[in-house]
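Follow-up to my post from last week.
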Amino acid sequence: MVHPPAPSSWERREFLGVAATAGVAATGGCVRRVRSVMGWRSRSQVSLEIRAVPADADPFAFRIARSLADWFQRAGIDATVEPVSEEQLLRKVLLDHDFEVFVGRLAPAVRDPDALYSLLHSRYVDESGWQNPFGYANLTVDEDLERQRRSSLTERAIAATSLQETIAQTQPFTTLAFPEDVRAVRETRFENWRGGALNTPRRFLELAWAGDEYETAAERRTLRGVATDERPTENLNPLSVEFRRSGVVTGLLYDALGYVTDDGAVRPWLATNWTFSSTQKRPRAIVSLRENLSWHDGEPVTASDVAFTFSLLEDTTGASVEPDAGTETESEPNRVPAPRFRGRSSLVDTVRARDPSTVVFEFTRSAPAVAASAFTVPVLPEHVWAERRTEASISGVEFGPASEAIVTNNLPPVGSGPFAFERNTPGESLVLERYDDHFLRREDVTGVPDAVRGGPAFDRLAVQVVGSDGSATELVVDGDADVTMTSVAPSSVPRIGRADDAKLLVSRAATPYVVGYNVRNPPLSNSRFRNTLVRLIDKAAIADDVFDGYATPAASPLAGTRWLPTSLEWHGENPVTAFLGSDGELDVERAREAFRDAGFTYDDGALLHND
Amino acid sequence: MNPLLDVLVSVIAVVLVLHGLALAGIVGRKHLAVARVNVKRNVRKSWGVALVLAFVLVLNKAVRDVGVELSWLVGARITGGIYDLEGTFVASVQSLASVELTWFFGAMYVYGYVFLLTFPLVAYAIETDWRPLRELLVAYVVNYGVGLVCYVAFVAYGPRNFMPELVESLLYVQWPDVQLLTSRVNRNTNVFPSLHASLSVTVVLVASRYRSTYPRWLPVVVVFATSIALATVYLGIHWLTDVIAGVVLAYGAVAFARRYVARDDEFEPESPETTTPRPSDDD
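User reply:
Got it. Predicted complex:
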């Protein structure tokens, strides 16, 4: 919907006012009066546009948005909803910062307080990507973010508590609920589907073949995935923030130095081991790579690829000087940091290749346990990406500050992961082929979980894109696909339950649904306003009605982890910013009272603010 | 084995059967007897327009992906505006939903539509008068052309995407495989205007102009076109606004086609009746 932006209507009114009073002033000579009158700004109704992806792309987001709009309208806000595609939403929110309110899922999984560092630290307000897209700046939060990063366990917990409590009050974004990821899988061909948490590449590597040995001796074993998300068929660039959700597909193509275990620790993957030492509270790590690693094009994976990757994440253009000179505080005007992995790359001060298989990391002030999370970013091949550190151009014309490394579709991708790119049809399908030179396929591989030893159980991953989650479920139920790569709506549960060979996988997702606010502009820049706005949202009702109970409402993005303070635990109702009503019914009088207390006024049921 | 192929095969099979029935029941033996001569002549008259239509269809397919991208860049997002205009009308239509109705409208939306669009091309191709075929082809070109422009100019999602809690994707819930086909043909951001409605109404308008040719065709077309237009709303795919815009587009397209073909006529004053055999009009 095209809204006349509030300022322009005000400007017109102002102009007419000026024109009219100018006449009076000219005849009556009361210029002072004009100035006095002009000093008062007019009031207009608070309007908010809520954006979310439509039902085909996400069964919940738009329904949440509509519920929100309904509650906001009852409280006198001119709330509207607008469906946009996921790619467009991320582009507007993360790159352009051109939005008011959005409903969606946090893409970076927040299982550790340090994940909030890039999301909320004020040093990132001007960067693009999943680093502070809200424009939030709070000195207490900055302080806590620094403190949790550099502290030992006990003090870290204290910092994390303070951090979460401040966020819960000031609401740069509202954590609504952690959904249950519902998926349909077939067990006739593959088994060892674990708990449904198929949002990490490792879960796919753990699958085991369950089909007939003889039947498939001739043909290759294909894992047939079906997804509602078409973006991986169009772009496989790990740095393209608007094309990535969980990063499972790019995670199969690109390996990282380490992987995250189920209990959140980081263990070596491309590396055989690492040792930490520290000087002046700054950790230093010496990382040894596995022997004879190679990229999918046959080139060897070396320590200088690792060093290059971190230099690229820090500045994708290569305009800045070598990383050892450029600490974060000296920001060059042309520096374009990667829009993903920012929190992790910011832990790293310098990275240097000591010899082809040894990398030396110098970290910023941080605890080694936190610092190790930097090892989980995908390693990129220098011989492919070095030439992409140029300014992006369209038909030879350089355009804005983006670099080629960020905007390239990266097709075909050259990674070092267990799967290599085979072919794609944009919008329709993607095929990956097992990479037989991967270290998991070696007989003497050490230091990897038993379940992935020996390499993947399938030779090929074929992902087909369909129009909606209902179609995806149907393909699995009918035996035309093995797994839904994206989660499906609870309404599909009975269909999956009734089917003979299909199995239902339900597991709590690590990425919550949130309401994000652009706090750069009033009235959303007012934390008191946001704190009151959140009280119009009944998270429990959303979990019950929209998610059909397949979600757990939460007051903090770290809910469900050991970092959640007791003050923010959910016991039947929101521990802070409680809903102004009951059972999804907003108490309009209480809502108005709350906004009046926050300094706002009402006129004929409309919430007003100075604009 | 391949579900997309299954749907495709079923569409082709059903539409062929419908063609057979319609040739027998609507066109009749007398027209068929003189078909060969007329076809040659009509094709000679209309191959140019047919080529343009083919070009527009290929273009449609080719720019579909680019068009969506372009649409996000320059297009107006109007879904919220449409909702403000008509509210939950589609939801109230769906309150009448039943399994039988959904099958009926689903079949109309998929099979009926393809039949409605393709059959008049066949029927008019074997007709004595070359004008209806030419008019219809020109009108199709205008429909697709304007539709293409609209799809770039406006980003609009259908009601099933906008208010999923009120409007169910009835077709895709009851008959999920068909979405494999429709998602290849359409993008879900392209609902304004409804080409299902506009092309169906186009066929009705042309049929009504030339109703003397095949007297039994008009009532059939009216039933099909009405059902298809209703189906798009009932199935939650289109807004009422899209359908109304489609009807307006259809009137415009047919009016244009009429003038275009009439202008041709002036340059080519030969009368069709004198050069081609006519079936005797005694039934």
